[in-house]
Amino acid sequence: MSTMPVQDSPGDVLAVEIEGLVKTFGGLRAVSDVNMRVPQRSIYGLLGPNGAGKTTVLNMISGFLSPDSGAIRVHGKETHGLVPYRIAREGVARTYQNIRLFPGMTVLETVATGAYTRRRSTILGAITLSRAERRERAEVKEKALGLLEQVGVEASPDALAETLSYGEQRRVEIARALATEPRVLLLDEPTAGMNDAESQQIGELLLRLRGEGLTLVLIEHNMRLVEEFCDEVTVMNSGAVLAVGTLAWCLEQPDVREAYFGKRSDARRIETLRRARRG
Q1: In 218-239, which positions are buried (b, 16+ CB within 10 angstroms) versus exposed (e)?
Q2: Confidence category of residue 9, pLDDT binned at 50, 70, 90
Q3: What is the mean pLDDT of residues 63-79?
């Protein structure tokens, strides 16, 4: 593994820290001894070709999978063994590689479901529609509308979420995750299916969220987006970490080039095209 030299800040608590993470499915080791250190208030990229183990790592951070061994800490607290809703209450939210919206729900209702973990009302209050319940519902609605505006959803809040365009559904999913009031947001290919202009808007949204104190960890294949907006990246292949550092530095490492492009000669040609497009 290649690691770019960095100057650690002593005493800083990391947003996410992974040590020696291992996950095996049958005889296949999907994740092998992965280490990752995500600083607070950063935009952190998790990169690699298909099948590298990236989504498996996100699934373990969010509690959807349990590691075979290793440690996961969120803001210094060990989360290994916690069920997903408990991890969500610790301030971790996520979106998915394949969009998962609730059928039959409007855009507004979909985003409002994200506030469930923060609701204070009781079952009795919901049944009787108490004053506190009505007040909280109004607060959730106002918050959901604000999040829809924040992420740039242009569709009507009353439209069925499943009828929106692919890019709009992605934004609704991000808004739903933000409704949980996370401190760490995990994004699995947030710009998939978007054009360059839409991807740029998502990148600018990530910057605004980071400015508000959020830490973002994203799996992304859009190298232009990663190069422009990610502070640091971890590159994986076949379940193992190949390199850690800035995107530009990682792409200079021979094992990263071969993992992405197969042959170093192909890597050089792709790098020339990447620089030309950036220019």
Answers
A1: bbbebbbbbbbbbebbbbbbeb
A2: very low
A3: 94
